[in-house]
Design goal:
The complex is a heterodimer of chains A (203) and B (486). By secondary structure, chain A is an all-alpha fold. Chain A is built from 7 helices and no strands.
Chain lengths: 203, 486
């Protein structure tokens, strides 16, 4: 079952890397986060540790429910539907994503840990979305994908205390909220959320 | 006990701006709180100063000679900046530049920011240090974009995107780092004080990768070039008190967290090469910033690049690693905190009087704003390392360290960059302060006397530092050096 969920995560991230409509990207993000939450819950069921349950529930509540609601609301208010011009076009993005996944799984092919490989693939895809897209909202979703990779990484690598894990997840949520609020302000002052207009600050 | 008191104090300080409608009360309470924090820190320093260490709450908090240097910087600059903010925010509210609500929001974020910084300096848990750094990103994002306009929002967005990627990479590094110690007791592996005494990880290779990731990731927050690109924008667009706090204290703290990890890796046999990370990134920062300083048109950006340069100096000193160089690095972080805060606050006064950040629009400051002009020149001398001030000694110690270790190329680069920076600063500040256009009559401005108490406090602190450099201060720094060099 965990293999199937990991597949969902990878497929959704490939899907998100080339799609232009923000609604579709958000949908992909919901699928991905739900899969991650279920994986963590499943691990909790297998090992019987409370930490996993709480991390899973926190992930599902914040990333499947709260953050998508925020994104959808701001999309509605800002009246944006899609990315118009991509800095890296869809074809090349798919290629980079594929290469990223190949690198992650190829470099670590000796390790049995699929979480680690998927996590690294998610880092690459997240950073790609942050760098290669112009709309501030897409950049924010890219950051959230990056953070999903960190959750996978965390579950595979270390056993931290609950307070620390909760701290990490909570700060992610706060950062997403802050990005959301800032997108509103950017839209108000620039009349657009294209980061193309960010050209005032030069030497 | 002190930790509990500090916690309650900050809870009170954070809640105050939400409860009180009056901006002056909030400002006053913040100053009062800052003084109390300073008192508690002084008490802690007297306990720890003999080279002892304290730990509280099952070793979650741990104070040693290295953290008291940071505590001292945070608490002093906090007092100075909160006194400055009292007038600054009060005037902005009075002149209707910002609403009362935003003024209260400023104090809320400000106290949260200071809280997270103290948390980083006090904690012993290596992941909690990361949480503190992330917390400072959260709080400063809105402080940078505080004057919601095009420039400030652009810089804030840039800051959030770059720093969150950087700090995410840092977290990956920390997770790999912790995982390399998974052969040890689970309750202990997150504790710095435990890791430093048990340098036997499962794989040294993993530690090497992890430390590199941590260095690059958290180095983004420390403003080391080539990851510094957010810094000039953010520091020039933030309100001046916030730039002072960020540049003087936050950059230091990010470097301090890297240093904590470096101390652990140093004790592991076979990982001596990690010091080259510090040396190379330090040199790159020095070169990039010193050449950028030469061609700046905006005085706040100039100061921001100078922060990059000073972080490069400190990183270089830590990387060289001999006792004298590390002593110089820690002394320099202290001097830089006070000198750079003084310059940024003076720049804030200039900005509120002239309403421009361009260098070519300001002339003959010695006639229009004589008091600020004097502080500007003193601050410049402090930061560039002119002889009577402690920065001269710290930079000199680092030169001695590089010569002793035999890295003559590094010595040459370092001294060359220092010269360039001195030239760049002199060119700009002599132009601002003394240049007079023929036929223009300069009138003394009323704004000159407005906000000079914090500047004087900075100056007095620097004087006290120079006087105690052979006594208490050097004892304190020597204890910190012993922790690093061992």
């Amino acid at each position: 079952m965990i293999e199937a969920l990991l597949t969902i995560i990878l497929i959704s991230s490939i899907f998100m890397s080339g799609v232009r409509r923000i609604k579709l990207i958000t949908a992909g993000f919901i699928f991905q986060s739900a899969a991650i939450g279920l994986i963590v819950l499943k691990l909790g069921y297998q090992t019987g540790k409370v930490d996993y349950y709480i991390l899973g529930i926190l992930t599902i509540v914040t990333k499947v429910i709260i953050i998508p609601i925020i994104i959808n609301r701001s999309v509605k208010k800002l009246k944006i539907k899609r990315e118009m011009e991509l800095i890296v076009n869809a074809f090349v993005s798919y290629l980079i994503t594929g290469l990223g996944i190949m690198i992650a799984f190829g470099l670590l092919n000796r390790s049995q840990d699929n979480f680690l490989k998927t996590g690294i693939a998610l880092f690459i895809i997240g950073v790609l979305l942050m760098v290669a897209r112009k709309k501030a909202i897409t950049q924010m979703i890219g950051f959230l994908i990056f953070e999903n990779g960190i959750v996978l990484f965390e579950t595979s690598l270390s056993k931290m205390s609950l307070v620390i894990e909760a701290g990490i997840v909570f700060e992610t949520l706060m950062l997403a909220l802050i990005m959301g609020i800032m997108i509103f302000h950017i839209n108000k002052t620039f009349d657009s959320i294209n980061t193309d207009f960010f050209e005032n600050l030069k030497e | 006990m002190y930790i509990t008191v500090l916690g309650i104090l900050f809870l009170f300080l954070i809640v105050t701006p939400l409860l009180f409608k009056n901006i002056k009360t909030t400002g006053f309470v913040t100053i009062f709180g800052a003084v109390l924090v300073f008192g508690i820190v002084l008490k802690i320093i007297t306990i720890v100063s003999g080279g002892y260490s304290l730990s509280y709450f099952n070793e979650f908090f741990y104070i040693d000679s290295l953290s008291i240097v940071q505590l001292l910087i945070i608490s002093c600059i906090n007092i100075i900046v909160s006194i400055y903010s009292y007038r600054y925010i009060g005037d902005e509210v009075k002149e209707k530049i910002i609403t009362l609500k935003r003024g209260r929001f400023y104090y809320f974020l400000f106290n949260f920011f200071v809280f997270f910084m103290l948390f980083i300096a006090l904690t012993n848990n290596i992941v909690a240090m990361w949480i503190g750094l992330e917390g400072t990103t959260l709080t400063t994002a809105f402080l940078i974009g505080f004057n919601i306009n095009k420039n400030s929002l652009e810089s804030a967005w840039k800051y959030i995107i770059i720093c969150s990627i950087g700090i995410g990479i840092g977290l990956i590094g920390i997770l790999i780092f912790v995982n390399a110690y998974s052969n040890q007791d689970t309750n202990q592996i997150l504790k710095w004080s435990h890791l430093v005494n048990n340098p036997n990880p499962q794989s040294t290779y993993a530690i090497k990768i992890a430390f590199t990731l941590i260095f690059v990731g958290l180095g983004t927050k420390a403003g080391l070039a080539p990851m510094h690109t957010w810094l000039p924008d953010a520091h020039s667009e933030a309100p001046s008190p916030v730039s002072a706090l960020m540049s003087g204290v936050l950059l230091n703290l990010a470097l301090y967290v890297i240093l904590r990890f470096y101390i652990i890796t140093k004790h592991i046999p076979g990982l001596q090469n990690t010091k080259w990370l510090f040396i190379i990134f330090g040199c790159v920062s020095l070169i990039i910033s010193s050449f950028s300083i030469l061609r700046q048109l905006n005085y706040k950006r100039l100061l921001a690049f100078s922060s990059v340069e000073n972080m490069g100096i400190i990183a270089l000193g830590l990387g060289v690693g001999s006792k004298i160089a590390v002593f110089g690095a820690i002394l320099h972080s202290l001097v830089h905190a006070f000198g750079k805060s003084m310059l940024f606050l003076t720049a804030g006064n200039l900005l509120s009087a002239y309403k421009t950040k361009r260098i070519d629009k300001i002339d003959a400051l010695i006639k229009t704003m004589p008091i600020n002009a004097v502080f500007l020149i003193i601050g410049m001398l402090v930061i560039t390392g002119a002889p009577p001030f402690p920065a001269f000694f710290s930079e000199y110690y680092i030169i001695v360290g590089t010569v002793e270790s035999g890295n003559y190329i590094v010595t040459a680069l370092y001294t060359f960059c220092l010269l360039l920076v001195f030239a760049g600063f002199l060119r700009v500040f002599i132009k601002i302060v003394f240049n007079t256009e023929p036929g223009v009559k300069y009138v003394k401005m009323e704004e000159d006397k407005k906000n000079i108490l914090p500047l004087a406090l900075c100056f007095v602190s620097i004087i006290i530092m120079s006087l105690t450099m052979n006594g208490d201060l050097s004892n304190m720094i020597n204890n910190a050096v012993l922790i690093i060099c061992d």
